[in-house]
Amino acid sequence: MEYVTDPAAAMSRLAAADRFGEYVMYEQPGSWVFAADPLGSVELDAGELRTVWNGQTTTRAWTGSPATAVDAALAGLPLDGRNAYGWLGFEFCAYSLSATRYLNPLTPLAHLMIPRIEVRIDATGVRISGATPGEACDIHDLIADSQHTELPVAHPVDVRTDPTGYPDRVAAAVAEIRAGDYQKVILSRKVQLPFAVDVPATYRLGRANNTPARSFLLRLGGLEAAGFSPELVASVDDDRVVTTEPLAGTRAFGLGAAADEAARAELLADPKEIVEHAISVQTSFAEITAVAVPGTPAVSDFMAVRERGSVQHLASTVRGTLAADRTAWDALEMLFPSVTASGIPKREGVDSVFRNDRDPRGLYSGAVVCVSATGALEATLVLRAIYQTGEGAWLRAGAGIVGQSRPEREFEETCEKLGSVAPYVVKA
């Protein structure tokens, strides 16, 4: 097997080649997969469920839980041991958190596809499944070629312009928190880009300058996106262990050793950041407890500091064993959206997001999802990402608002987070 020294370059090249149709690329620690040319798909909107297989589309209304609807739709396809890949929009949460009044029937909730071709790269080399011999030869050639190409040139983006009135929206949320309406909310702002973006090239350059927990690159259903996820929303492994990794509390990173160490010390001593993190862990623990075998939920690495590109965060890990009467999709629905991207309590926090964020979030603070043939599932939080449709390209970032928040500091935090992607945007 060939040895690949730069998997990100290989994945970017496969995506840019544009000869394998729609795709989802997903990086886990030590392993990369490029899944392409869908045999079928499951698309869920607020108004309907569409399943596609072998070119035939079935459309029907759905009721109840979106997680149950997607799980059942996947189970109804002749997957024959294949995996599924795709994304959930933030609005997927509206059903479990009583916010459906904010949706219209066309609001996209989920899009998963079942690939014909999978290309995996890990320490053992390259493995290709589902491709014809000719395609496999092309794939090997593209990967080999990718290892000798220079990094693309960036077209940096100004992230300090803010037509969204972010500080005023933060002030309004602080007033609601101080009035006792809820404890925390994550409010975000969108930065529209004035040009079309080369998303695979942006992924490659961004990945060379980020330290994500997971990363992704996709083109699916008219949406292109690439991102450097700081945390897991949920994973359920083959041993039915459920894991989530709440990150809350942020300072800049990458400004030099002395500045980074000072920011780290400030982060670990800041009462606002500590409170924000502790209540996020408390919420995640309660959510895992609701779907786990009693006595199995536990917190580890409490309040560790993890560097994620241009920022550093307080981080913890929460795990439990999934109860026998619960599915991986039940666990995902309980943990989604990430507490660190919504609010506390979640129901009131999500209501505040829908009211105060104004623009629908879509993939921002949703999840990229991988579902294995064995039923294992992983959903990574979509932050530190770039998005593009036929209508344009944009970035988006948010900050956790609590009663002690200052609008100017929260705006600065969005700039720090946008710094994980904005300097590495490549113009089409």
TrEMBL record:
Per UniProt, the keywords (alphabetical) are: Lyase, Magnesium, Metal-binding
Gene Ontology molecular function, alphabetical: isochorismate pyruvate lyase activity
Looking up InterPro entries in the UniProt record yields: ADC_synthase, Anth_synth_I-like, Chorismate_C, Salicylate_synthase
Cofactor requirements of the protein? Mg(2+)
SUPFAM superfamilies with a match to the protein in the record: ADC synthase
| Gene3D superfamilies linked | Anthranilate synthase
Q: Which residues form a coiled coil?
A: none
Q: What class of enzyme is it?
A: lyase
**Domain Chorismate-utilising enzyme C-terminal: from-to ranges:** 164-417
EC number, UniProt record: 4.2.99.21
Family annotation (Pfam families): Chorismate_bind
Q: Any idea what this protein is called?
A: Salicylate synthase
